[in-house]
Write a structure and sequence with these properties.
Blueprint (H helix, E strand, L loop, with lengths): L3 H12 L20 H12 E10 L2 E8 L15 E2 L4 H14 L9 H4 L12 H5 L30 H9 L16 H15 L3 H13 L21 E5 L5 E5 L15 E2 L1 H12 L6 H8 L13 E4 L5 E8 L4 E7 L5 E8 L6 H13 L1
Antiparallel strand pairs: 1-2, 1-10, 3-6, 4-5, 7-8, 8-9, 9-10
Helix pairs in contact: 2-11, 3-7, 6-7
InterPro entries: AmpC-like, Beta-lactam-related, Beta-lactam/transpept-like
Protein name: Beta-lactamase family protein
Pfam family, one: Beta-lactamase
Length: about 375
């Protein structure tokens, strides 16, 4: 769901600047290490109500927080709190798909039509690989839904959606490009289809497969797939979305509780910084997949791209390449990346206040962590 935040920043700035600067946490802090706390504070000052981060490397573990857990309070962000991790869900889904490939239960070049007959037009030309690396051209269903700051967005807050229902909304629109495989266009619809393919291949819900194959074996006790459950369990920061009020002013509305079925296999997961660091290290370290499939995950779908089979890469300012993913769940944003050997890992999560785009500030924090 990576594009959503940028669209919201543009839309809300055009209306009115949201006056909701975050207060500095009053909680005691872990001693700063190589400027990490300073960079996290900059993330908060740029675009967040609250933020939390965990860095793991050869020096040990550093955790930091900034801002507040809830507006109009001084309550600190819980350093090990849970949050909605958005599109990082896609890396979990992709890992299960590739495990099934390794087991011979499905193929990367299987057409969608084989598994989901009639689900998408020209499904015989769109493959599992195309869905994984966003080269399918299938229209993104999120573009069919109301988004903030309009009041219509809130009307769907508690609604339970099915993947098939959302896919039908998407395929009512022409593809983003044709033929499949010829270009890149980020599509959450593709991952809804992958969730359904997992279910057809295994006979079980995709969430049950992720839990059995990844969450339980790795001991990710703070990670869950909530389905249609609206709550976030355990200590957590509150998340907000900008909504235009009757007086025409855009204000932040608490959106911590919502029905995540609208994100489904593309973005429903709830996790912690520690769990995501553990997952990324296990994935890159070969605990979940054989090496040739990890290499396939790292291979971009188009020339010059940075997104492979559910896994992205970025180069830091010091030339260190790191792998992982980022996620946008409207009221929460998260990033989790690690070096190729998994020895250095960084996960950052924040609750945006939509005063600006946090990407540059998060990049600077990651550069400090990976290059320091």
């Amino acid at each position: 769901m990576n594009f959503v935040h940028r669209a919201l920043v543009t839309a809300t700035t055009a209306l009115v600047l949201i006056a909701a600067p975050a207060a500095v946490s009053a909680a005691p802090r872990q001693a700063d290490r190589a400027g990490l706390q300073e960079q996290l504070d900059h993330v908060v000052a740029t675009a967040a109500v609250g933020a939390l981060a965990e860095v793991r490397d050869e020096h040990g573990v550093w955790r930091g927080t900034g801002g507040v857990a809830e507006l109009d309070t001084t309550r600190p962000v819980p350093a090990t709190g849970t949050f909605r991790a958005g599109s990082i869900t896609k890396t979990f889904v992709a890992t299960v798909v590739l495990q099934l490939v390794d087991e011979g239960r499905l193929g990367l070049d299987d057409p969608v039509e084989r598994w989901l007959p009639g689900a998408v037009p020209d499904g015989h030309r769109i493959t599992v690989r195309h869905l994984l690396n966003h080269t399918s051209g299938v229209y993104d269903y999120l573009n069919t839904l109301p988004m903030p700051p309009g009041q219509a967005f809130l009307a769907n807050r508690w609604r339970t959606w099915t993947a098939d229902e959302l896919v039908r909304r998407a395929v009512a629109h022409p593809p983003s490009f044709d033929p499949p495989g010829s270009d890149y266009a980020y599509s959450n619809t593709g991952y809804l289809l992958l969730g359904r393919i997992i279910e057809e291949a295994t006979g079980r819900p995709y969430g049950a497969e992720i839990t059995a194959r990844i969450i339980r074996p790795l001991g990710l006790t703070g990670t869950s797939l909530p389905g249609a459950s609206v709550r976030i369990g355990g200590p957590h920061p509150h998340g907000y979305v900008p909504i235009e009020q009757a007086d025409g002013v855009v204000r932040l509305v608490d959106y911590t509780e919502m029905n995540p079925s609208v994100m489904g296999a593309g973005g429903e997961i709830i996790s912690t910084t520690g769990d995501l660091n553990r997952f990324t290290a296990a994935l890159l370290g070969g605990r979940l997949l054989p090496r040739h499939l990890i290499d396939a995950m790292k291979t971009p779908g188009v020339e010059g791209g940075t997104y492979g089979l559910g896994l992205a890469w970025r180069d830091t300012s010091c030339g260190v390449r790191v792998y992982g993913n980022d996620g946008d769940a409207l009221a929460y944003q998260a990033w989790t990346f690690a070096t190729e050997d998994g020895r250095r890992r960084v996960t950052v999560a924040l609750t945006p206040d939509f005063r600006g785009d946090p990407d540059d500030a998060v990049d600077a924090l990651m550069d400090t962590a990976f290059c320091g």
